[in-house]
Each structure stands twice: as structure tokens, then as C-alpha cells.
Specification:
By secondary structure, this protein is an alpha+beta fold. The chain contains eleven helices and 13 strands. It folds into two domains: 210 residues, GAF domain (Beta-Lactamase), CATH 3.30.450; 151 residues, Heat Shock Protein 90 (2-Layer Sandwich). It has a six-stranded antiparallel sheet, sandwiched between helices. A five-stranded mixed sheet has the order 8-10-11-13-12, covered by helices on one side.
């Protein structure tokens, strides 16, 4: 007989109560940190925890910094930093995997350093990653002085709130960035920055609530989902994500205008970037008779450049193909060039195509190809503009060929190693 794991009514009720409480807080005029603090207090109380905290990733130093810490000895953690991979939180941040430890005395990965500095005696701990669109932002953890306090049930409960908390953190970062840009832009672009700040603020509450609850339902926390329901939920989640992408694109454009883009070099492989993005592309093709192909020709070199910018370049160009292709195929091909000193990426689709007289303008911000076949698809025309600027920032180039009614091909070249 096959055993099926289900959530009890009590467990589901606890998760729903926590998420409903977070949603209520988000719908008020409470300050961002106050919303998170209230949510963390409520979660800790529901889980019987003696302490809870949110740690954020410092990408420059590769460390984890305490952002919010609540409970006994919490005031001693304000300026505390965990090194890369240190302790349970470090392990979760490094692997992206949730972890629960019933008794830390039996777990070799537990670090005693924090307890030794604060005098707190941790016995049980649960920790989950905070991710936004696949990117790690930090971790959220709860601790107890009693062994056996946390198990799989508590880990699932913590994972349920990680989504909305991560989105709140990311939106707060975007808002702060807009405000910072506002202070640096000239008078001619100041009104745009004010518009961006207002837009982000007005959009964050409904989008946070929608994304968090859609994700909760899709994961099955509230019960089984039929295939028909799943398709509707995926469509709603996809469109909610596009709303956040719009805000991000506007922010990217403002960063360029303010000269605020900095290249952070790290080593990685293009194949890993594709693996992270492929699911999002497939969701975008839901309901379309389109096949997506990924092919590597030759041995691709390892890259030493800005990973997040390469990811955004590939995302924007492929999503452009996804958006304008209703049938046929999209082929993404990567190959080494210049004896492995650079890579070439070709994105070829069988979409609506671009009129010849419109090709000179497709990389300009807020410009879209005119015509019912394209205007009906929405958008504001920022994806390709951002992609081209990022490509040039990394020392690369982009070309495009297109035939109306046949399809479009974008060719991108990027140096394997970034040189300032």
C-alpha cells in the first residue's frame, strides 16, 4: 500500500493563520521593518520558538548578516556576521536547501560560535532559504532551547512564509534603490524617479499578497490542485511576475542613466544560468504550441564576468522570443568563439518577426514595433534596451535579423573574461 503524506487540518490552519497575519500587516501603513518584525514574532509564537531571525546575503563579502533578530539575546546579534558556509544558516545559504535539526548536539554542521558569544543555548533549529525568482536573498531561521522542538511540520510552516517574506525584502531593496537614484538624478529625470518610487510603493502590497498566496496554493500547502486549476494559477503567477519585472526594468534603466551599474566578477558556467531560467521560459510558453530547444556547440569556456547581468541578458532576449512566438519553435544555441576567449549566443524564433523599417529602433527604451500583431502583446519595450546596455557594459555586442511573418534571430557575443 502506498503511503501519501498529507498536511493535517491543524498544520494547514497554522500556516494559513501565519500567512493571513502577514497579509494583514502588509495591507496596513506599517513600516516595512515593522511588518517583518510583527510577522516574525507571530511565526515564532506559533512554532514555539525562543528566537527567530532573518539573515541577508552580503554578495561582496560572501557572508550572512543579521537583519532582524528577535527573542532572548537578540540585541547581541545586531552587528554579527556569519562567514560563508558557517553553521546551519550558512549551509542553507550555500546549498539553497531547507534544514531542520532536532538536536544540534548531534549535528556536526552546527556552529557554537554565536551561542558562545551570546550565552544562548540552542538545542533545536529550523532554517529555510529566502529566494526571489531563483536568486538567494538570505535565510530565515527559528531556534529553541529545547531539543525536539522543530521537525518536518515546523520546517514546512517556515517554508510557507519564506516566499512572501523574500518578496517583501526584495521590494524594499528596490524602493530604497529608487530613492537613492532620486537623489542623484538631475532635474530633467527627477520626475521619472519619483514616478518609479510611487509605482513601486503602490504595487508592492497587492503583488506581494498575490505572489505569496499563489505560490502557497501551487505548492499544495492548502490541498491538492487539479490540472485545470494549476494552469490558471500558473497564468496568474506569471503575470504577477511580469509586473515585478516591469518595475525591475524601469529601475535598471534609471541605474544606467545615473551611472550606478557596477560589474561584480565571479566565475560560473553558462549552462548553470540556463538551468535556472529554463523553468521560467517554459511557464511563459504555457498554452502555446511552441517548442524550446537549448543546444551547446563545442566546449563552452568557464566565464569570469558578472553572473547576474549575464542572466538578465539571456532572460530578456529569450523572453522576448517567448512573448512574440505563438507557434513553432525557439532555438537557443551557445558556442565558443575566438579560441574560447568569448562565447556566442543565438536566439532564433519562428515568431511574428520585425518589419525592416523598425529594426533600428527596437533597442531604444519605451519603443515597440507598431502593428496589431505586436502591440496586442503588451509590455513597455524595455527588455531589449536593457539587454543591449548590459551587453555593452560587459564588453559584448548584439545583432539582429528578422523577417516579418517568419521570425527573428538575435546573436550575442560576450567575452569569457570581463576586463574593465
Amino acid at each position: 500500500m502506498k503511503t501519501v503524506k498529507t498536511l493535517s487540518t491543524v498544520e494547514v490552519d497554522s500556516e494559513v493563520r501565519i500567512l493571513a497575519h502577514i497579509a494583514d500587516c502588509m495591507g496596513t501603513s506599517m513600516a516595512f521593518e515593522e511588518v517583518l518584525t510583527t510577522a516574525m514574532r507571530f511565526t515564532a509564537a506559533m512554532m514555539g520558538a525562543d528566537g527567530s531571525s532573518i539573515l541577508l546575503v552580503d554578495y561582496e563579502r560572501g557572508s550572512l548578516n543579521f537583519f532582524i533578530a528577535l527573542g532572548e539575546k537578540a540585541d547581541q546579534l545586531k552587528n554579527t556576521t556569519l562567514q560563508k558556509g558557517e553553521g546551519i544558516a550558512g549551509f542553507v545559504a550555500e546549498t539553497g536547501l531547507p534544514m531542520v535539526v532536532s538536536d544540534v548536539r548531534r549535528e556536526a554542521r552546527f556552529s557554537k560560535r554565536i551561542d558562545q558569544s551570546t550565552g544562548f543555548q540552542t538545542r533545536s533549529i529550523a532554517c529555510v532559504p529566502l529566494k526571489v525568482r531563483g536568486e538567494l536573498k538570505g535565510v530565515i531561521e527559528v531556534v529553541s532551547k529545547k531539543a525536539g522542538t522543530f521537525g518536518d511540520k515546523e520546517l514546512d510552516m517556515l517554508a510557507a512564509i519564506a516566499g512572501p517574506v523574500a518578496v517583501m525584502l526584495e521590494n524594499a531593496r528596490l524602493i530604497q534603490e529608487v530613492k537613492s537614484l532620486h537623489d542623484q538624478l538631475g532635474e530633467a529625470t527627477r520626475l521619472k524617479a519619483e514616478l518609479l518610487a510611487t509605482m513601486t510603493h503602490e504595487m508592492r502590497t497587492p503583488i506581494n499578497i498575490v505572489i505569496g498566496n499563489l505560490d502557497l496554493v501551487l505548492r499544495g500547502y492548502l490541498g491538492d490542485v487539479t490540472e485545470r486549476q494549476r494552469k490558471c494559477l500558473e497564468t496568474a503567477l506569471r503575470n504577477s511576475g511580469e509586473a515585478l519585472n516591469l518595475v525591475s526594468s524601469l529601475l535598471d534603466l534609471s541605474r544606467f542613466e545615473a551611472g550606478q551599474f557596477v560589474v561584480h566578477v565571479e566565475e560560473f558556467f553558462l549552462e548553470d544560468i540556463w538551468s535556472e531560467l529554463e523553468t521560467f521560459f517554459q511557464v511563459g510558453l504555457t498554452g502555446k504550441a511552441v517548442e524550446l530547444f537549448w543546444r551547446i556547440e563545442g566546449a563552452l569556456p568557464g566565464l569570469a564576468t558578472d553572473r547576474l547581468k549575464v542572466k538578465e541578458i539571456l532572460s530578456n532576449i529569450v523572453f522576448n522570443a517567448v512573448k512574440y512566438t505563438d507557434r513553432g519553435e525557439i532555438r537557443v544555441t551557445a558556442s565558443p568563439i575566438e579560441a574560447g576567449k568569448a562565447i556566442a549566443i543565438e536566439v532564433k524564433d519562428t515568431g511574428v518577426g520585425i518589419p525592416r523599417d523598425s529594426l533600428p529602433f527596437i533597442f531604444e527604451p519605451f519603443r515597440q514595433v507598431e502593428g496589431s500583431a505586436t502591440r496586442s502583446l503588451g509590455g513597455v519595450g524595455l527588455g531589449l534596451a536593457i539587454a543591449k546596455r548590459l551587453i555593452h557594459l560587459l564588453g559584448g555586442a548584439i545583432e539582429v535579423e528578422s523577417e516579418l511573418g517568419v521570425g527573428t534571430t538575435f546573436r550575442v557575443t560576450l567575452p569569457a573574461r570581463y576586463e574593465a
